């Protein structure tokens, strides 16, 4: 079978953006044959929208090789990219879209027999680093990419000035974030807590929870709300919270959530409602990747700190801080974090100013639709 579009993505955040673009393509041309492939996930985002998917393998590091121990743990998975390559080779597709980094793009280019690619690299930005794209990387992209869709307009301008065919038509990260409710469905005031989606998030949520006994000494009614990633294990979280002296109670109605409490501190853990939790929060404490950027794009100030695990190292967080251009602050844990939260809660004008910076960097919703429209216009004669 030959597919009209093959989407190849790195992992969870990229899978989501690819699936959103694929959905927009099917709205425009319902008969399109589309398949997804994810290198470092099981491709749940593709499955949720009814697409066939080539599933990847999730190594212990989650793809973040930041230490010798992480490399050693990943050794049994060393041949996974080669196995993924062979799976891609078997797929016949008219048009190939890579939502991911340059190594994945190069692997896909060879697997698809030197077919030029449409590439969306939503993880790289010249806001982060003026050397974001190296000289060799740009030479590779000139050869293999038909178009590079960028994270932001500034990055597209820089790449075009260096001779690459780069466009910014919106960031799909900001799509699909419509709240369920027109008014707050949860008691306010509250802080949104984003621990991440990988295994380290279980431990980072515990680290975040330790802030609340101190916060509640000054802000008595302040609560924490957590939109849990479906990749997290609730049984593991329950055991960890109980081990640290919190009680856990599952509430079934009107909105199902798990109530975690300790003295006067309360956290509510929900399986859904990410847009609602972010929209009505005062600010966000985040140790996540894509979700952090989405929260900033929704106009919320972000407070972060170095956590446990490879996704929340100081280096990665400082890159994210530069990317979000003042919407995010990385603070020392716990004193610096507590001071920053207190400052933001007592200075609403600062919350608004930082929120506006996040909106400006991340852009408005509609990126997935715009990319899909570009793909249709560029490939109609080939479909």
Characteristic key phrases:
Rossmann fold, 383 residues, alpha/beta, 2 domains
Summarize the structure.
With 383 residues, this protein is an alpha/beta fold. The protein has 16 helices and 15 strands.
Q: How would you describe what is shown here?
A:
There is one protein chain. The chain has 2 domains: 2-174 and 365-382, Glycogen Phosphorylase B (Rossmann fold, 3-Layer(aba) Sandwich); 190-362, Rossmann fold, CATH 3.40.50. Helix content is 42%, strand content 18%. α4 (80-89) packs across α5. The protein is globular, with a radius of gyration of 21 Å. By secondary structure, the protein is of the alpha/beta class. The strands form 2 sheets. It has an 8-stranded mixed beta sheet with strand order 10-11-12-9-8-13-14-15, with helices on both faces. Strands 3-2-1-4-5-6-7 form a 7-stranded parallel beta sheet, with helices on both faces. The chain contains 16 helices and 15 strands. α13 links the parallel β14 (302-304) and β15.
């Amino acid at each position: 079978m030959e597919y009209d579009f093959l989407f190849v993505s790195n992992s969870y955040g990229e899978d989501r953006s690819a699936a959103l673009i694929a959905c927009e393509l099917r709205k425009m041309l319902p008969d399109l044959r589309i398949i997804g492939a994810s290198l470092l996930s099981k491709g749940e985002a593709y499955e949720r929208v009814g697409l066939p998917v080539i599933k990847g393998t999730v190594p212990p590091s989650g793809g973040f090789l930041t230490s010798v121990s992480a490399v050693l743990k990943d050794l049994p998975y060393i041949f996974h990219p080669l196995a993924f390559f062979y799976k891609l080779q078997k797929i016949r597709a008219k048009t190939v879209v890579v939502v991911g980094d340059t190594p994945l793009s190069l692997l896909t280019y060879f697997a698809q027999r030197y077919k030029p690619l449409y590439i969306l690299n939503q993880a790289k930005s010249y806001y982060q680093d003026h050397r974001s794209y190296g000289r060799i990387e740009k030479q590779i992209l000139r050869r293999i990419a038909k178009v590079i869709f960028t994270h932001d307009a500034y990055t597209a301008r820089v790449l075009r000035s260096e001779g690459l065919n780069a466009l910014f038509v919106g960031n799909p990260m900001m799509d699909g974030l419509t709240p369920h409710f027109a008014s707050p469905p949860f008691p306010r005031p509250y802080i949104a807590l984003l621990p991440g989606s990988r295994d380290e998030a279980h431990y980072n949520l515990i680290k975040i929870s330790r802030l609340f006994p101190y916060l509640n000494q000054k802000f008595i009614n302040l609560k924490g709300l957590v939109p849990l990633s479906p990749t997290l294990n609730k049984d593991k979280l329950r055991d960890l919270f109980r081990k640290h002296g919190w009680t856990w109670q599952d509430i079934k109605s009107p909105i199902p959530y798990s109530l975690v409490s300790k003295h006067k501190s309360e956290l509510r853990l929900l399986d859904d409602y990410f847009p609602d939790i972010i929209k009505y929060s005062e600010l966000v404490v985040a140790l996540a990747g894509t979700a952090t950027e989405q929260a900033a794009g929704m106009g919320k100030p972000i407070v972060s700190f170095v956590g446990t695990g490879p996704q929340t190292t100081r280096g990665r967080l400082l890159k994210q801080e530069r990317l979000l251009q003042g919407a995010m602050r990385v603070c020392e844990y716990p004193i610096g974090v507590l001071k920053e939260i207190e400052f933001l809660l007592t200075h609403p004008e600062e919350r608004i100013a930082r929120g506006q910076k996040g909106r400006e960097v991340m852009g408005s919703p509609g990126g997935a639709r715009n990319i899909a429209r570009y793909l249709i216009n560029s490939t109609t004669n080939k479909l």
